[in-house]
Amino acid sequence: MIQDSRARALPIWGEGKSQIPEQELLRQQAAESDARGIGDVLKIFIRTWPYLIPMVLGYWRTSSGVAGDTVSTQTPSPWNYNYVPFLVTALTLPGLMAGWVPLSLSWQHDMLFWAVAAMVVLSWSLIFLRGRSFLTALILLVVVAAVANLFAMLAVTGWRDNLHIGLVTFGCLCMWLFQYQVSDGRLQVRVRLGCHLVYYYILVWVSTMMGVVAGLFTVDLLNQSILQAQPLTPFLANFVGQPELAAGSIELLDLVQRQDLQRTYITFVVAIGFITFPLAVAMPYYNVWIMQQINQSLRLALVERWHQLSLRYHSKHRVGDSVYRIYQDSAQVTAVISMLISVSTQVVQYAITIVFVAALDPILGMLGVTIAILAIGYASWFSPRVRSRSLVARQAGADLTSRIQEVLGAVQVIKANGMEAREQRRFEQDSVNAFNAAFRVRSLVAVVGIIMFTMAAAILLGGEFLMAIWASDNRETFAAILIGLVGLSFVRWNLAAFQWAQTEFFKSSNQVRGVMRQWTSAQDMAMGLDRVFEILDIEPDVKNAPDAIPMPAFSRDVVFDHVGFAYESDRAILYDINLVVHPGTINAIVGPTGSGKSTLVGLLTRLYDPDSGSISIDGNDLRQLDVESLRWNVSIALQENVLFAMSVRDNIRYVVPEADDAAIYRAAEIACADEYIRGLPDGLDTVLGDRGGKLSTGQRQRLSIARALVKDAPILILDEPTAALDANTEHQMLSRLSAWSRGEDRDNEASNKRAIFLITHRISTIQRADQILYLDQGRIVERGTHSELMQIPDGLYRRFVEMEAMLQAGVRPVGADDRE
Amino acid sequence: MSDSTSHQDQPLSLKAHEVALDAQASSLDSHTDLNFRETVAIVWRALKFIGYFPVRFATKFFLMWLSLLSPLILPWPIKIVIDNVVLRQPMDPSAFPGYFSPFVDFLDGMPPTEMMFWVLVLGVFMVVTIGAFGSTGGAMDQTDAMLAEGHDTATKSENEANMAFSKFAGIIGFAEFRLQIRLTQSLNHLLRSQLFERIQNLPVSLLNDQRIGDSLYRVMYDTTAIQNVFFQTIMSPVLAIATAFVILTVMSFNYGEAPELIWLAACILPLQIIVMLPFPRLIRRRSQASRASGSITTGNIEEGMSNVLAVQSLGGNKRERERFSKHSNESFKRFRAEVLVGVFYGMANGMARGLLGLVAFYLISQRVIEGVLTPGDYGVLLYYYAWLSGALTAVPYVWIRIQGDIPGIRRVFFLMDLPSEIDRHGQALDQVSEAITLEHVELTYPDGRQALNDISMSFNVGEITALVGPTGAGKTSLAYMIPGFQNPTKGTIKVDGVDIDDIALSSLRRQVSYVFQETQLFSDSIIDNIRYGNPDASAEEVERVARIAGAHDFVSKLPDGYQTLLGTVTSKLSVGQKQRIAIARGLLKPASVLILDEPTSALDPETEAYLVQALHEAAKDKLVVIIAHRLSTIANADKIVFLEDGKIKEQGTHQELLFRPGGQYREFVALQAAAPVED
User: Fold this and answer.
1) Which residues of chain B neighbour A636 with C-beta distances below 8 Å?
2) Is this structure's pTM higher than 0.80?
């Protein structure tokens, strides 16, 4: 036996000694006290509707090839379906020609006739009705069509009526599928496509029908004729093309005929195989495709929302949690449809089965219903428990994912401090937690299934006992008429009755258990979806106002008016900031660490909205501007160089994907990055590692600046652009930058309308600024040009410059020793 | 397919596309295509994990065999009910198998009602113990706890990690379930922990090439593939073959007159294997592509979320959405490709089985037509044939079934096999008391770039050595070699005369305190962050170093002071503030070597001056290395090493180098203090 203590980290059998750490216990209690009922669970499922509906309603495709939205943008829509009643009426004519005259054929034909008449009338009325009456008429039409079709399939023999009803229904369906409009004297048609879920379930229905039909056909052919030499039914005989083999024409089939039929059987099976194999290939793939599309739309909604949320959310949530929600939680939406369909079909089937069972004896019916009642009672006990455990399991899984991401992200610091073992222990603890939580939920699910079966089996055994005794005693059955409807004739209990009743009774129990199984799984699904909607429910702090306008071209000024901001209510970062910035100026922001410089420029990109005061560009308050258009007009090179694991080219043109290599190299040149890029093994195609690995910090910083430059926005923010650069590179870059900002590289008036914000310590750069703002503890304490500020006696800026100069000269400044 | 499309004009073939995905997912893991031998080797290695849990595995195995017994018991009670209760026939003990006779004898002679009662009791007993009282559908139950999953390899991992199944219900089923779920969990936990440990301890050079998203994917979603191999390869084939033998024996016993049928059934196996031949490799390739694509998507999510505020500032929301959408779609597509291959296999397999089934049908029905067999026999024979072909199909199907999991396990083993720092052993190092010397050290990156060329120098204890030079000169690469983050391609490094390769890495790093150029803090409290390298430090010591680093002032102004929790996106502090905390962390660690990489880039002059003075204090008994651009920081160093293009150009004190005529250092300094740029 190989040794590894981790193999014994989890208990062998069950929950073990209290493996639940305190944090988990608190979570469990919080989840359990979450008093949600079945209504809330159902509401969660209903909320998935917007993600399912595109697969049901599809999209419109017009003859000009433009696919429009299913939701019409104008009301009332110019598209109409006024042709439908004509079409429907036209389609009823063949029925008349087939000899449909009311009250002349069987009562079934009469029913069909009235159904068709109703559908015609309703389709006419739909053109004229509006609002609620329209809705009622529509629902009536759907119901009538459905009932008529079912009726035609089950109660009427002959395929002509089925076809007729089908055609009429299709005529009504055209209202949903094809619409037209006449505009500018031209006829435009649009057709609804892409209702994939509908198509898929039609395919399912078709293949099931084919299977049923084929089965009916072959069972009879095989068992009766081939094996037992019985003649064929007339229908089968005609179908096979050998009417002489029909019952009535012949008594028994002989050897040759049976062998003939044997060959027919084989050909038929092969033919069916050829027809169904494409379906068998296409359907699973199609199903997966549909489900993935639905999942994708939910994932995108999540990602979009996350990228809108601000620091307030992200500082409290871990990255691994997002990964978990995208993978495990959003995937639950794919199971919703199949669950709903499965549950509803089983419930309907259960109702039918119970009716039949009760027809034999009401006691049996009661027993069958008892199973359902017991199940529901049990469900109300276990549902909240499954939910709470499921929630805890998901949170634990998300924590584990987060732990991995965080450790791997900070691996250098961990290595430097030799903390690998400690992080490993924490990881293993998280893993154990996750597995224990998963164990608790799954163990409960398994137990639920077992107990459910035990309860059902007890009742089934009791029922079997009763049925056996009744059959043994040949007792009378209850409702002979109802049973006659089904085609059986159990007046008294006998073996056949016993077997039939047993089958149905067991079926009803299966259906109840099936529903319970789905319901249990649905609790877990609901928790996953809940975690998704939790995110989608968060209102972003910074969002577009309803009447947001795109940002007009920057021409006049940027004004900060009494702006104040705090990350949290007790710690203000900025107080009463007032400043005006004009295009064509370089504005330096200087100050000690933590004085709020980065926050100030962050407000300009609407990373946050100010708590008090306002910021406006050309008189437009930032909050009135469309966020995306604002950020498009502001270019920022951040202090912490954020690069992505893409090629150098893609990093530079991150927000400007259409930039060509020439533009990229121009920007790189100004940022003094072009030389080293050319020196890279793959040049612009070099793929960077995580966080822009493979480059030194200085190289990353220049890339980051090139990225800001390529955007060519009218407002440029550079946050400590030269911190990692040596003096030579720094001078080069700054001179190129200033040349660029004055438009010396191209003849473009717009270029000297650029406003540049520069946060830096470098005196040489600051000196050239048109306006210098000295920020201290969130307030602008001094402002002006370099010469102006230098003249302030004992000014903070002056002191700052002097210290800096002394340091540059290599002399330690006086007064720095007394700091203990 | 990388993000850029500028040089991809023609659509790539599937193979090329998948290769591109592999490269994008992980640049380390390139040989992803496996042949049969390699696959078998992986399966064998996975199976060796049984050695960790021999007893549990054997128990589960035994319980699975028990399920073979249920068809022996279950049909008989219903026979009693039908024959003896409903039809009121007398009990015939000879119609029942020997093991059932005690019960039959017990029932012999009872009136039907009483018989039914005892059958009921037996039924209850069976329900409670094995969760079945008959062989029809409604009378049997199985135990499992599969929860809903999505259509993507990653989303199936939760079910895989906790797989447990029992053919029984009742007490035995419950027991088997709990045993298996803990067994699967233990297996997964073990593999995950082993993999994570190896990844964490990979050398920095390898980690730089390995994306976090890819590692995350492997630890979370690839490791779970092992449980399939574990259970499928052992349990299924053995059971299938045993079942096949049983059926064959029964068939030949009763139907010796139709030996062709048995031969036909035996043909199933070779035909299945032939049909199966092209598929394993196809499935493996698709599964690998699906995982690679999933890794890329995970990396994208992880990257986007870690930098979410930066993305917003840059105005990259739309771009991130597009990128995510593209990667996610791609991973879905790759999964669909895997599904499609599986579907085609099912089709091929079904056709083969169908053909054979038709032949069987022909043979049997021929016999019936000729009168040799009865219609009842037809039913029985076909049932046996179906059962047998099903059992035999299971054997090659096992191989197909695990092909989707093999790439996952391969990816796990690949990372585990990479050289890890755990493997490096050496002697312990108490402290560095003299010097660290580099002799003719060279560093060349794998892609050919030469970072350092013929470096020979020494860092001495009691001195501050400053590494100076233009950006990209190799200063950080040089400093990385001291704590062993980077290994020289040529040359030796000696610590107190001992070759660095002979020193245990953990011990070496304990003696080196490194303050990185780019700060990384954890989402713990500030005091825990500072204490990271020295968890036992007292609050006073923490405050002392915080003052030196210039952090104490702003920390004490925070409402929670040192207990303030830094969030995951630590924007509560400015970059400069974070840097000071990192410096404090570096100062607090009781190491004999202190390396600071650009510590002053975000410090104001006052704080910088104070820090430099403190460093001089510390340097009295430590070895201090500073990398900096700023003159103020390096001017008072004991030794300045000027690097350019990976070579040492000059060494000496500030004064010495300043007065060297035509010296590069001098020129460098001059630029620093230069007048403002003229236009």
Assistant:
1) 313-314
2) yes
